[in-house]
Amino acid sequence: MGQIYVAPGKYEYYRCPEIITAITSNTTKERELTELVDRAGQNASGVVVGVFAYQKWLAITREERRQLREVSAPKNCKRQ
Fold it and tell me: Which pLDDT score, from 0 to 100, does residue 22 have?
């Protein structure tokens, strides 16, 4: 689902420091969204909120991370 919202090649021209920063930020964002989905799932009305409000953003975040890793591999970007 995230592929629909993330432009192909969005990170193509990023350099390694930018890629590493984006991956770090993306990982934090994914963790926060996952926690929100989990918390929302603890009650009946929260499940609906979790699906409609957070799942879309979680899918987008995961697609962005996939693209970042795809771009970082040929550039041999390594986390410090």
Answer: 95
Amino acid (one-letter) located at 35: E
Tell me how crowded residue 78 is: count the other CB atoms within 10 A of its CB.
8
pLDDT digits (tens, 9 = 90+) for 44-80: 776 777 777 788 888 899 999 999 999 999 999 986 5
b vs e for 49-63, b when ≥16 Cβ sit within 10 Å of the residue's Cβ?
Answer: ebeeebeebbbbbbb
Which residues touch 74 (CB under 8 Å, ≥6 apart)?
Answer: none
Per-residue pLDDT at 15: 94
Which residue's structure tokens are 């009946």? 44
The Cα–Cα gap between 75 and 62 comes to: 20
DSSP 8-state secondary structure symbol assigned to residue 1: -
Every domain of the chain and the residues it spans: 14-73
Tokens read off for 17: 């420091």
